[in-house]
Each structure stands twice: as structure tokens, then as C-alpha cells.
Write a structure and sequence with these properties.
It comes from Heligmosomoides polygyrus (Parasitic roundworm). The protein is mainly alpha-helical. The protein is built from 4 helices and 2 strands; from the N terminus they run αββααα. The chain has a two-stranded antiparallel ribbon.
Length: 140
């Protein structure tokens, strides 16, 4: 009887390559938990999906994230989803802009847009179509 020993890194690399090749994440890694916050059970906003990821899936998602960031150009003005740039940076930038315009006595048009749930409403088919047009997935 032959015993096959796989080094963990080798096994993980094989597994992640298989996921990419098959374009399918195994069902057991796609499981989510719905967490109910305080409040009425009838109010949908009192529920929050939580994903407890396995270490393998965390590594996979970081790998995909890194590849996406190599392909997609993000604006230097963006603070969300950017390492080392957070809410304080956005507030500082806005404050500096307002101060500069006030000193020059120029009006500053401001628009606030709440995108909290914007991506919940984008049909996945639209996202896949956009990825297809950009030939995005072939580069991953």
C-alpha cells in the first residue's frame, strides 16, 4: 500500500488551482450564517449575513483580491477598500477641500450618496457581463 504525503502548501496550491480551473467553489465553502441582531424578527435589516471562512478560503480570497487589484485601477481619491486609507483620511481630505474653497471664497458643491446597500441590488448577471466585456476573468 502506497501512502501519499502532501505538504500543506502543495495541497493548498493544488486545491486553489482546482477551484480556479473548475470555476466552482465547493458547496461546503459557500455556506453562510444569518445572524439576527436585536429588534423585530419581521424587520429584514435586523439580520446580517456572516461568513466564517476556512483558512483555505481566506487564502483563496486574498489571492483573488490581489489579482483583481493588479487589473483594476482604483482612484487615488478612494478610501474604501484601500489599505492605509480610512474614514479619517476621507474626512481630512474633505475638510482641506472645504477650507481651501472658503479661503478663496468659492462655492463648493457637495453631494452625499449613501451606497450602503448598492451592491445588494446589482444583478449578478450584470457583474458577470461587465467582467466578460473587460475580459476580466481570463486574467485571473
Amino acid at each position: 500500500m502506497e501512502v501519499q504525503v502532501l505538504v500543506p502548501a502543495e495541497w493548498l496550491a493544488n486545491f486553489l488551482n482546482q477551484v480556479v480551473a473548475e470555476k466552482e467553489v465547493p458547496e461546503y465553502l459557500r455556506q453562510n450564517t444569518i445572524w439576527k441582531k436585536k429588534g423585530s424578527p419581521a424587520d429584514c435589516s435586523n439580520y446580517r449575513p456572516i461568513r466564517l471562512l476556512s483558512h483555505s478560503m481566506k487564502i483563496f480570497e486574498r489571492s483573488v483580491d490581489g489579482r483583481i487589484r493588479d487589473i483594476v485601477q482604483l482612484s487615488s481619491n478612494q478610501c474604501g477598500f484601500m489599505a492605509g486609507c480610512g474614514t479619517i483620511d476621507a474626512i481630512h481630505t474633505a475638510s482641506h477641500l472645504l477650507e481651501t474653497h472658503r479661503e478663496k471664497q468659492k462655492p463648493v458643491p457637495i453631494a452625499f450618496l449613501d451606497l450602503e446597500k448598492a451592491f445588494d441590488r446589482v444583478p449578478r448577471e450584470v457583474i458577470w457581463y461587465a467582467c466578460d466585456i473587460m475580459q476580466f476573468l481570463k486574467d485571473l
